[in-house]
Specification:
By secondary structure, the chain is of the alpha/beta class. It has 6 domains: 206 residues, Rossmann fold, CATH 3.40.50; 166 residues, Rossmann fold (3-Layer(aba) Sandwich), CATH 3.40.50.300; 101 residues, no CATH class; 66 residues, no CATH class; 183 residues, no CATH class; 142 residues, no CATH class. Helices cover 47% and strands 15% of the residues. Strand 19 and strand 20 form a beta hairpin. Helix 9 runs parallel beside helix 17.
Length: 960
């Protein structure tokens, strides 16, 4: 029996000793601390018993004292975690005669009513639901009983605006219930002290390093069988090799999670596995799928009806989906924190290893994967990037405070806000500027003096500015909410953007190729504009409802699709170590002494968990590189390729993005030409510039100018515009669900220039996408010659960035032959219903490919065969009525006319006519026009049909 369990209430102690052999290390440390009443941050690896380390002492407290419900709030960032936690805690609650409930966005009104009338002792909920509950009259009374608050998966909240909002919500909650004990917990926290401060935890208990991992990086060479497989599933040989290895791993393990970095990758990977092995029991799981689909997948996986789930980050949190004995990561997970969360899903118990394999691709991915694997084993996590003083969240919470207390003065509001850690440095001036925006859009009213119960006619409604309300007189000013404040508050309970997605349809194949974010569609939806999706350029033909119809394009100067933003940014520290590892591999490749070479190889394999193939591929890169210079942590190499300049720089996603925008802005301003730029974690690629211009910016400009230049240049970027629209929604300037295509964002941005709306949009970009301070440091190091700039012609490493990482601006055009092949496949796979216009006694549905060369009625032998939609089963009856001289409606007359016209096409052109009529929007008149012109090749014919389709798609929205 564990001495730790002796500290618990006798009932809880008995349950704990019956359930566990002994207390885990985290339980031994956390239970006494939490029992003492300290606000605590608990960090422990997945499967180490951290949930019990928190809940056992809190259950002991609930069992020891007569607490009124709701006594304990358990907050998780996902609804799925709510359901999972309910399942895990209901056993304990039943044994201790404690009521437990769950409340989230899917909780029904009937269930919510029961929770108000008969509140549970323990309520599992989300941060957003607390915002809603704080505004309920009866729920506020119940919340006044809260004594303990648990915040699970705290790393998911601390570096987001959800976390900022929660800190203010907790301060409002404390006004009701006093000072509840707050416990935060997570498996991965890269900045423990900052996270502890963020949620007011005074004690940190961290045993994450005790979690043991077994990780290997693999990158197979393709075999002959892989080449055969590649042809079968339409991928490259190296991709087929990786798929084969992943498939074998899934087959040879009981339960496997296969993680990808994006939803698109998950979909593609799952579809390829289905082609490789239709019998493989695997499903897909990501945030764009419906709740019902995700829940079924989780349930089937837990009951072992399926062997593997192909997933994104949607399954990397602590949802219990059964025993997992292997985690596969397709390519680098890009962050150590992501990797720890994902690999931690396997071996979900105290004594088991968490097993994982990274299946790496080529080039940079090999080095990045090796470094992340090393850092996972060493438990070296990245620091978090925190938002501070978020003005849009502040606006929302001011309304929340006004809901909590109808008559409240500005001094008290400011005091509540300042007590939340992220707002500790908020100035009075900043506070007033936010109120000014809220006042102008009529979310609030502010009055000086008087009583709100009296007639307001004698009171002054003021326009707020810093001169009007000095802080020392803040008690004299009273704030009340405006009419639309309640609607605004509940529409913005979540800080997560309500992005509307549009389906992209390839008009040549009529197949969906992905989705686009509404902000992107608002920016790039004009007919003729181009963008990149799945590495290919596409031209917009039309936007109809929630669909964007496109065709393949030859443009390489195309916009980047909005969903590319979901890629996790590779941190500076990872990219720097990639540079160091490059240099080590280069030294091995050029080492003359075999003994020294062997010793270096042993050293690398001891440090990095890679197999021989990965090391061999790394060495091959530098054999191909030869004597050409390459970027490492101390060297930046500028290379030329056609009209591109590739700046090879191992600086990570955020620093490269910052410097690229800065360089582009400076050169554009000085030359008057628009300099195009794109980045990855190891390169910046520029178009319409040269070596000397880039070097001049890096060597001659002052680091302190960086922020001023970027603030000015970002205002014109689509990145800033998209952020501005999201911030405007959170402020209540735009309604949630507003159609962004029906407004002029530039005009709105000008209205709110130099206001907190504009400032917050910039802050969000700088916090989430850029790294200003590190970029200043890099420029300073370049100017002090601590980082060298070297010029060179294109090298294999630089070319890799063009061929793979930045294929959207340099990938060869999609071959016309391939486009026409896909288009022909669609046409001959189109279903058509043939009907005899002569007798009206026969109709039959065919695929175009199966049509007889000369269609003829089997009943009357007539060639008067019309073509109608495959579901137009009423066609025969229309013909019969017409033949018998019966009345037919105007609509039926139109259908009859089409049948006659299409039969005329088939009489003249036979099956070729049906082929042309299979084109979308290609009617009899257009078909005849095309066929009259057709006197060349099949390719020429298909081009004409495709041209007619494009015209129809572009113009059909104007037809009535």
């Amino acid at each position: 029996m564990s001495e730790t369990f002796d500290l618990l209430h006798p009932k809880v102690k008995k349950l704990a000793t019956d359930r566990f052999v002994s207390a885990t290390s985290i339980q031994k440390k956390a239970i006494p601390t939490i029992l003492s009443g300290k606000n605590t941050l608990v960090i422990s690896g997945t499967g180490m018993g951290k949930t019990e380390s928190v809940m056992l002492p809190l259950l002991s407290k609930l069992a020891s004292e007569d607490h009124q419900p709701i006594a304990l709030l358990y907050l998780t960032p996902l609804k799925a975690l709510n359901r999972d936690m309910l399942d895990r805690l209901v056993w304990w609650s039943n044994k201790l005669d404690l009521e437990i409930g769950v409340r989230h966005g899917d909780t029904t009104p009937a269930q919510r009513k029961v929770q108000v009338e008969y509140p549970p002792h323990i309520l599992i909920s989300t941060p957003e639901q607390i915002q809603s509950m704080l505004s309920g009259k009866h729920l506020r009374k119940i919340l006044s009983n809260v004594k303990y608050i648990v915040i699970d998966e705290v790393h998911e909240l601390a570096d987001s605006k959800r976390g900022i909002q929660l800190t203010l919500g907790l301060e409002r909650l404390k006004l009701l219930c006093g000072s509840p004990q707050i416990i935060s917990l997570s498996a991965t926290v890269g900045s423990p002290k900052e996270v502890a401060n963020f949620f007011g935890c005074e004690k940190i208990i961290d045993v994450a390093s005790e979690k043991k991992f077994s990780i290997k990086v693999k990158s197979p060479y393709p075999t002959r069988e892989d080449s055969i497989l590649a042809e079968k599933i339409f991928v490259g040989d190296s991709v087929a090799a990786r798929l084969r290895v992943m498939h074998d791993l899934i087959k040879n393990h009981t339960s496997t999670l296969t993680f990808t970095n994006t939803r698109t990758e998950s979909e593609i990977l799952s579809s390829r596995f289905r082609k490789i092995d239709p019998e493989l029991k695997q499903e897909i799981h990501h945030s764009s799928l419906s709740k019902r689909v995700r829940e079924k997948t989780e349930k089937d996986f837990k009951s072992r009806k399926i062997k593997s789930i192909i997933c994104t980050s949607s399954l990397q949190l602590g949802i219990d989906i059964g025993s997992i004995d292997m985690v596969i990561q397709n390519q680098s997970p890009r962050e150590v924190t992501q990797a720890v969360q994902r690999f931690g899903r396997s071996g979900h118990s105290i004594k088991k290893l968490s097993k994982g394999i990274i299946i790496s691709s080529e080039g940079d991915d090999l080095f990045e994967s090796a470094i992340i694997a090393r850092k996972v084993l060493a438990n070296k996590l990245e620091p978090l990037h925190f938002h501070t003083k978020s003005y849009d969240v502040l606006s929302h919470q001011i309304i929340g405070i006004a809901n909590d207390e109808y008559k409240i003065n500005l001094k008290k509001i400011f005091s509540i806000i300042k007590s939340a850690y992220p707002y500790k440095n908020l100035s009075w001036k900043e506070f007033i500027k936010v109120l000014d925006v809220m006042n102008k859009i009529r979310l609030i009213w502010i009055r000086k003096g008087g009583s709100l119960e009296r007639d307001f006619s004698g009171e002054e409604i003021i326009n707020i500015n810093t001169e009007n309300i000095p802080q020392k007189e803040s008690e004299k000013f009273t704030l009340t909410r405006g009419r639309k404040a309640i609607t605004y508050y509940f529409e913005n309970l979540s800080t997560i953007p309500d992005n509307r997605n549009y389906l992209i349809i390839d008009s040549t194949s009529q197949k969906s190729i992905g989705t686009l974010d509404e902000n992107f569609v608002a920016e790039h939806s004009e007919t003729g504009s181009t963008f990149i999706v799945r590495g290919m350029p596409w031209r917009v033909i039309s936007v109809e409802g929630d669909k964007v119809f496109v065709e393949p394009s030859s443009s390489i100067e195309s916009a980047v699709p909005a969903w590319k933003g979901e890629m996790i940014p590779v941190p500076f520290e990872i990219a720097q170590e990639v540079g160091k590892l490059r240099r080590k591999i280069y030294n091995i490749t050029n080492e003359r002494s075999e003994q020294a070479k062997e010793q270096s190889i042993i050293s690398i394999k001891e440090k990095y968990p890679i197999d021989n193939t990965v090391l061999k591929k790394m060495k091959m890169i530098f054999k191909a590189q030869g004597k050409k210079p390459f970027a490492d942590e101390k060297t930046i190499v500028l290379e030329r390729y056609a009209d591109y300049v590739i700046v090879n720089s191992c600086l990570g996603a955020r620093v490269n993005e910052t410097l690229a925008n800065y360089i582009s802005a400076i050169i554009s301003a000085s030359t008057g030409a628009v300099v195009l730029c794109k980045t990855d974690p190891y390169r910046m690629v520029f178009q319409k510039t040269n070596f000397s211009e880039i070097k001049n910016v890096l060597e001659d400009t002052k680091p302190e100018d960086l922020e001023i230049v970027l603030e000015h240049s970002l205002r014109r970027s689509s990145l800033f515009k998209n952020r501005f629209l999201k911030v405007a929604k959170r402020f209540g300037i735009l309604r949630r669900g507003a159609d962004l295509r029906k407004m002029d964002p530039r005009r709105l941005m000008n209205v709110y220039l130099d206001t907190p709306v504009h400032e917050e949009s910039l802050k969000e970009v700088f916090t989430e996408k850029l790294d200003l301070e590190k970029s200043k440091e890099i420029i300073s190091m370049i100017q002090k010659n601590k980082i060298k700039l070297i010029e060179s012609e294109i090298s294999p490493i630089g070319e890799y960035g063009l061929r793979y990482e930045l294929r959207d601006i340099s990938r060869p055009d999609r071959p016309e032959k391939e486009i026409l092949r896909v288009f022909k496949t669609r046409l001959i796979s189109t279903k058509q219903r043939l009907v005899c216009v002569n007798c009206g006694d026969w109709d039959q549905t065919y695929f175009v490919r199966d049509l007889p060369k000369i269609p003829r009625c089997p009943k009357c032998s007539s060639r008067l065969i019309g073509i109608v939609h495959p579901h137009a089963t009423e066609s025969k009856s229309i013909i019969k009525k017409w033949m018998e001289g019966k009345h037919i409606s105007i609509e039926q007359q139109k259908k009859l006319a089409v049948m006659k016209a299409t039969s005329d096409v088939l009489i003249t052109y036979a099956r070729k006519g049906a082929f042309v009529l299979a084109g979308r929007g290609v009617g009899p008149v257009a078909a005849k026009r095309i066929l009259r012109r057709f006197n060349d090749t099949e390719a020429h014919l298909m081009k004409e049909i495709l041209k007619e389709e494009r015209a129809w798609l572009a113009n059909k929205k104007y037809w009535t």
